[in-house]
Amino acid sequence: MGIYHSRYIVSELAPRLAFNAIRLCGGSGIAKSLPLERFYRDARCAGLMPATSDECLLYAGKSAWGLT
To answer: What is the DSSP letter of 31?
Structure first.
């Protein structure tokens, strides 16, 4: 269960961290020439990559109930 739990936490936390970094840096922080734009874009897509956030939650729930 550890890897799925970790994957879920990271895929949910990364977009929030990137968003807050952009808020701190202001609108210029999202310029294509700066790495923050790429970090934000990559973080927003993290929940869609295999295993998706939903799959991680499903596996973690099954594991908690001893169904795996």
So the answer is: -
CA distances from 10 to 31, 33, 43 (A): 24, 25, 9
Q: Rounded distance, CA 47 to CA 52, Å?
A: 5
Domains in the chain, number: 1
**Domain, as residue range, for 26:** 2-64
Dump pLDDT digits (tens) for 45-62: 877 788 888 888 898 888
* Distance, CA of 45 to CA of 13 (rounded, Å): 12
| pTM attached to this predicted model | 0.70
- The residue among 35, 44, 41, 34 whose CA lies nearest residue 13 is 44
17 within 8 A of 66, measured Cβ to Cβ = no
| Amino acid identity, position 65 | W
Q: What separation, in Å, do the N-terminal and C-terminal C-alpha atoms of the chain show?
A: 10
